[in-house]
Amino acid sequence: MTPAAPSPCAPPLTLPAHPAGDRFGRDRGALRLPEFLRRPVGKGEQVAAVKRLMREGDLHTVCEEARCPNLQECFSHGTATFMIMGKDCTRACSFCAVGTAAPAPLDPAEPASVARAAARLALRHVVITSVNRDDLPDGGAEHMRRTVEEVHAALPEATIEVLAPDFLDNLDDTRRVASARGLAVYNHNVETVPRLYPRVRHRARYERSLGVLQTVAREFPHLKVKTGVMVGLGETRAELFALMEDLRAHGVHILTIGQYLRPSLKHMPVAEYVTEEGYDDYRARGLLVGFEHVYAGPFVRSSYNAAEALRHAQEAAPPAPLTDSPPPRP
Questions:
Q1: Distance from C-alpha of 243 to C-alpha of 246, rounded to nearest angstrom
Q2: What ranges in the chain are assigned the alpha helix state H?
Q3: Has residue 14 got a pLDDT over 90?
Q4: What DSSP assignment string belongs to 236-256?
Q5: How many other CB atoms sit within 10 Å of the CB of residue 77?
Q6: Could you tell me what percentage of the chain is helix, strand and coil, using 3-state DSSP and rounding each to the nearest 5?
Q7: Are 302 and 163 contacting, i.e. CB atoms less than 8 angstroms apart?
Q8: Is the pLDDT assigned to residue 321 strictly greater than 70?
Q9: Which SS3 state, helix, strand or coil, does residue 141 take?
């Protein structure tokens, strides 16, 4: 189906970004955000308390490492997304603020440390993500599985969500994580449209990510399958609509859509900023395509208000059964 063009009289769906600047620190205006995208930095006591708790357990959060704009809000509510397997990633995606370096060995005590921290925060929904660990034979899948199960043992009433890597297309590793006791949501982000993968996700493959999502949807029907997309990277409206159709055809239940915010001048520039009308447009299209829940907005991230997204998906009418999927769009 060809998407309808917005009315000429409708509010704009996007706003132009600042010039790209350069990676040597000149033209700092390239990182200046529009007024509607500015948020205060969190310094309250509850924010500090969550940070202390993480440091006491030698733990990391993606909120801090990825410079999430929602850090103040989430930490002030006593929530955080645990990032396991260290703070150094083996990949260097051009959008991501997480550091790239040779990672340290896995800490065998980390799963229990995450469980203790989650229990001290009295979390009702726990989100666990990780850096890419392409240096490990299983990509860290067993470590992630152990972390889920330790958290489940400590908080048996909590729902648990993972935001997992692609494990370099080893679907047995994907299955190892998806079969963890206590898991409710399996999230793997596609991040962007297929055309932009070589520029945005250098070592990832669109078809590989679709395979991960489809495998979980087919083989673990008790799980909610989730993915996230950034906008403002240079994608077109038609490309994003086509991406939505691909994702639904491969079994995704929950879609998050948020604005790409450039972490530094070393990262790829923002192509445009999506307005609230643009997110309304994407949200309506996603629900029409058949997602159980579409969470779209400038500050939406994969793990932001994750419990709310799960609740909406659980309350929605179940989608049609997954059938044979079409090949990914070129």
A1: 5
A2: 45-56, 62-65, 71-76, 110-120, 141-154, 171-178, 197-200, 206-219, 237-249, 276-289, 306-315
A3: no
A4: -HHHHHHHHHHHHHTT--EEE
A5: 13
A6: 35, 15, 45
A7: yes
A8: no
A9: helix
Q: Do 233 and 260 contact (CB within 8 A), yes or no?
A: yes
CB-CB neighbours of 173 under 10 Å: 24
The amino acid that residue 16 corresponds to is P
- The answer, as to whether pTM is greater than 0.85, is no
Percent of the chain with pLDDT over 90: 51
Give the pair of three-digit tokens for residue 64.
Answer: 């801090």
50 near 32, Cβ under 8 Å? no
Q: Which two tokens stand for residue 225?
A: 């399958």
Q: How confident is the model at residue 327 (pLDDT cuts 50, 70, 90)?
A: very low
| Residue 53 CB neighbours (<10 A) | 17
Place of tokens 């087919």: 218
- The arithmetic mean of pLDDT across residues 137-161, rounded, is 96
Q: What are φ and ψ of residue 229, in 5° steps?
A: -135, 140
